[in-house]
Amino acid sequence: MDINIEDILADLDRDTTAIDSGSAYLSSEHDTTRFSESNGDHKDVDRQVEVQKTSSHKTISAAADYECLVTHWRNERVAPELLAFPHLLMDRILHRLNNQIEHLENLSMGFLEHNFDKESKLPLLCMEAEVERLKFVVRSYVRCRLHKIDKFSLYLRQINQDRSNLESLNDLLSRQEMIYHERHSEILLKLFNNSILKHMPQELQAIDDTEGSVNMIDAPNWGKFVFLFVRGSPEGSSDPLQETNEDGQACYLVTIPELNEEVELTIGGIYVMRYHIIKHLLREDKVVLI
Amino acid sequence: MGYYDVDEILAAGTKFSCKFNYDIPGLGYLEGNPGRQLNKNAKIELPLWLASVLAIVTGDQEHDDEEALPFVQFLSPEMFSSKVVNAIKSDAPTLDVHSISGQFYTLGIKWATLFSDVELAGVINKMLLERALEINRHASSVSVDAGVAPSDSTGTLLMTLDEFEKKLYKETHDTYRDAKLWLSRR
């Protein structure tokens, strides 16, 4: 008779890993403390970051935030619409970035006072490079969003005016982006008005005319095909949307309305799919765009 | 399909021959002789942006018993005639689309939407698929050196592409080239 003891083993495993990681983490901490005593204070931060990484991988951490930012960045680059702005995440990241830059400056002050031979410059270089990398991602992300705001400025204004709409513009845009959006469309409107529109008959002067033969408001191309990776829910269980297919693999069922066809998105698979079909899955972080 | 899309505007400027269903005074300048009236059944070339609206808007009913006719009626254009459709069906990849129309796909889409022409849509769909394969084949055979001109067969192909396909070719080509450059030189 086979007795399945995997649950018990898993329980035991969890205990041991906890001890293991704890001891490893302790030992590494000792290592770094020793270094920091001999080599100056810049190791302290490395240790702090490490502590953050190891001890709090479930809760908010710098590493997890970075991962999250990269996901947001990638989604934003590929998605046809403007995605919601991650206010809290960006606040945390910008705050950290400021702190780190300040810290870097303090460290380089230390280099002036101490002897160069004793101190290794490598950690400083790494930290500088890391800051640059993070700054690049943030910059690229913001620029990509600004591009979309330019493109959809009339559409965003329509959302704002439409009181019945579910999303408000405040969730969609950051504060600075709101200012940019308002000022930019103002300037553009002024240019159009002064150069051409004022010579038009009264009823043709609207910049956001939807009744004419061609709709002047460019909405996002909801039918755009995107590549997507099905990530599944982070916990692995308790997901109401998730179902099991014939082969026993977990999957999501989505329906393509034009063809009236059901498609199962197996977890771990890569698909090419119209954007509006997988929009709700993207919102809930079940899939990521690539 | 945006409002500010230049290709779209150019495509909408393509002329189609239409037939007028009414006598309309004052519109003689469409025919080239202003000041006169436009006669019923006159055949005129109208740009698509004008014709597509006039073909939908109906005039006054002449007699109560019949349905109101739109101002103009499209005559079936040369570029979607059975001759062209047969040529597409027989061998799409070698067809010289550019000589038929520089904006073939955009116009094809517009035409198919206007008349709900399922058959035409199917033909154009298949044609695009077949030609896309050919375009990919040519675009993927890129040389890393920037100065080298495309080979003869690619050059001939490029002459036969319509505007949309040119854009497609350019994008595919650039992607392949950039990937190759990155792999070889870093």
Automatic annotation (TrEMBL), chain A:
Superkingdom per UniProt: Eukaryota
One annotated Gene Ontology cellular component of this protein: CMG complex
Keyword annotations from UniProtKB, A to Z: DNA replication, Nucleus
Domain GINS subunit: 118-195
Keyword Cytoplasm: no
Single biological process term from Gene Ontology: DNA-templated DNA replication
Domain DNA replication complex GINS protein SLD5 C-terminal: from-to ranges: 220-290
Job description of the protein: The GINS complex plays an essential role in the initiation of DNA replication.
PANTHER family reported for this sequence: DNA REPLICATION COMPLEX GINS PROTEIN SLD5, SLD5 PROTEIN
Similarity field: Belongs to the GINS4/SLD5 family.
Protein name per its UniProtKB record: DNA replication complex GINS protein SLD5
Native species: Eremothecium cymbalariae (strain CBS 270.75 / DBVPG 7215 / KCTC 17166 / NRRL Y-17582)
Upper taxonomic lineage: Eukaryota, Fungi, Dikarya, Ascomycota, Saccharomycotina
TrEMBL record, chain B:
Keywords on record: DNA replication, Nucleus
GO biological process, one term: mitotic DNA replication initiation
Stored CDD domains: GINS_A_psf3, GINS_B_Psf3
Domain of life: Eukaryota
Pfam families with a match to the protein in the record: PSF3_N, Sld5
Chief location category: nucleus
Domain GINS subunit residue range list: 80-183
Subunit structure: Component of the GINS complex which is a heterotetramer of SLD5, PSF1, PSF2 and PSF3.
Protein name per the record: DNA replication complex GINS protein PSF3
Organism: Eremothecium cymbalariae (strain CBS 270.75 / DBVPG 7215 / KCTC 17166 / NRRL Y-17582)
